[in-house]
Amino acid sequence: MVVMARISRPERPDLVFEEEDLPYEEEIMRNPFSVKCWLRYIEFKQGAPKPRLNQLYERALKLLPCSYKLWYRYLKARRAQVKHRCVTDPAYEDVNNCHERAFVFMHKMPRLWLDYCQFLMDQGRVTHTRRTFDRALRALPITQHSRIWPLYLRFLRSHPLPETAVRGYRRFLKLWHELCDLISQNPDKVQSLNVDAIIRGGLTRFTDQLGKLWCSLADYYIRSGHFEKARDVYEEAIRTVMTVRDFTQVFDSYAQFEESMIAAKMETTSELGREEEDDVDLELRLARFEQLISRRPLLLNSVLLRQNPHHVHEWHKRVALHQGRPREIINTYTEAVQTVDPFKATGKPHTLWVAFAKFYEDNGQLDDARVILEKATKVNFKQVDDLASVWCECGELELRHENYDQALRLLRKATALPARRAEYFDGSEPVQNRVYKSLKVWSMLADLEESLGTFQSTKAVYDRILDLRIATPQIVINYAMFLEEHKYFEESFKAYERGISLFKWPNVSDIWSTYLTKFIARYGGRKLERARDLFEQALDGCPPKYAKTLYLLYAQLEEEWGLARHAMAVYERATRAVEPAQQYDMFNIYIKRAAEIYGVTHTRGIYQKAIEVLSDEHAREMCLRFADMECKLGEIDRARAIYSFCSQICDPRTTGAFWQTWKDFEVRHGNEDTIREMLRIRRSVQATYNTQVNFMASQMLKVSGSATGTVSDLAPGQSGMDDMKLLEQRAEQLAAEAERDQPPRAQSKILFVRSDASREELAELAQQANPEEIELGEDEDEDEMDLEPNEVRLEQQSVPAAVFGSLKDD
């Protein structure tokens, strides 16, 4: 039977407990400040309702507020009570308040801070959590911050808020820097700490701050008076740092330390006056400092090689730093070829082997050089070109020492077919199975065979190159030239043919040019049909960029050995086949050759075709030349018709030279009517160009003084308007200005399209010159320009009476 009892106590008058609680209550009454008594009572009531258990914890903590055990258990129990509830439940706020009450007494306990921060992280309260972490760091001693930071950093990583994370990490690093500076500058006050372990722990965690941490550790030993230990730290640092920045920090600090040691020794010596005893020590320190300075390039090179041990160029620089010390050079080369992985190398790894062999060769150790190169040929390089370079270096080594037969044997060995053939770019196969297709090795072998071998061996090498389909156009040309030198002309032409079958345009351009030139030089007109077939084959599919040379060569063949009409047909084809930029030059050649062969009258059709095809600028030049030719032939009407046709593409404002030429022509060969017709055409053309918006825009930009401006520049402040409206407004403005600038016209009922000069004056001018030549003043041109294009000449004449008939009397 459970007996409920009520005990009247001063602090809790409503306290209710069960009969089983009486022994524990009595024990507490006897020992109210005993933690063990309270813990036994709490352990007994673990199965009680949560409010009853919490009430018991509160009674205990009221008497023992500084008990870590009670607070830890109580807070743990409170967190467990709300573990499966929604984070918006008010019970969470009660638990948070309970933690806050605990930190009034337990603010130096990192475990409670960690539990509270984790509890807040689970609630998702970012700002409250961050502030709690900051409070923990401020409340705890710096030696216990290492327990807070891991959870703090995990919190920063779990919430991607850039500004918060950056500030948190900056505070983290600042803490370590301040800690390192503090303990390194005050070694006598941190004897209870393991400073070496603390800073080395930072070295493993903060890899971007190694230089500063190493200097802090060395500074700690220097201030502690352990100078040799500090020197060991510096040496360890410069041999382990991975960046140039860290190396510079450590090396500068190391050099400053050595300088301060020398200065201190010199000062001590001068004060004590014991120079003889301390000279040796001072000399030792000076020698140590000089050695440190001289080692700097080598130490820096070591840093770079630690960053990338496969950097070929840095290994070569390291060898250069050991200049004059053969043993170190050999050791460096040996370490380099063993360290560098060809598949990870930066640079050409074969150069290390070649330089290693060259070092032995320069020192007269040819056998060692050959051994090095032989080992290099067995290295699995990444690129075939690396192995090919090694084989070529083997041959060059023997050539330098006049071992020509050995050089030939080596290169023949390099180009021999392997047991397992592979394609040149097949990366799955080792380079030793692909080097037989290396053009570099074959080219050197061909050169050696030409110089040292026989005709048959050289021909076999070239044939093998063509069979492997690794030849270049230059190799084909070299092969054909070699056969030609030995009087095998047809064989050389076959070599050209084989080369042509290997390549397409534009790579085959040089082969065709050389082939056709050599064929014409050899046979001339004796095999004309064969030569024509070759030219037609070459021109079939030839790009316009390379057509000009072949067509000119073809036309030259026809002129010298063939028919003139065939040559003209070739020139005509060339004008269509070449690039637009080359058409003008091609037409000039065509016209010149046609005039020399058939005469200038045969060029009329060529001129007409050129004017139709060429651009306006070139067509204008062609028209002027055409008209000049007709004028020389006495065909004045033809020339005038050409000028009239060309005028349609000649704006009077930009092509004044053309109109001046036409004017001079009319003055020499025309009359009053032809000059007026020319002026009429000029006004008509100018009116046509005035209506072209694009030209108007460019002219207006020039007038505004801004050649690189835009349409909106014509009307500043009106950028929102339509560009077309701006052009129209500007055109109207220019037209109004031109109207104002024109002189007033004489009022007359009859309009004449003629100058101010009378007919008598014109007749007098005509009498002074021959009938085909008259001189007109400049004023007439200006007056004629003032007339409108639609004005028509009107004259008054008397009407014969017979016209009116019977109407006359009326």
UniProtKB/TrEMBL annotation:
Is the keyword Nucleus in the record? Answer: yes
Annotated PROSITE patterns: TPR
TPR repeat boundaries? 388-421
CC annotations in GO: post-mRNA release spliceosomal complex; Prp19 complex; U2-type catalytic step 2 spliceosome
Compositional bias, Acidic residues, is annotated for 772-789
- Region labeled Disordered — which residues? 761-810
Per UniProt, residues of the Pre-mRNA-splicing factor Syf1/CRNKL1-like C-terminal HAT-repeats domain are: 342-729
Name the InterPro entries for this protein.
HAT (IPR003107), HAT_Syf1_central (IPR056350), HAT_Syf1_CNRKL1_C (IPR055430), Syf1-like (IPR045075), TPR-like_helical_dom_sf (IPR011990), TPR_rpt (IPR019734)
Q: What is the designated name of this protein?
A: Pre-mRNA-splicing factor SYF1
Q: What is the lineage of its organism?
A: Eukaryota, Metazoa, Chordata, Craniata, Vertebrata
Annotated gene: XAB2
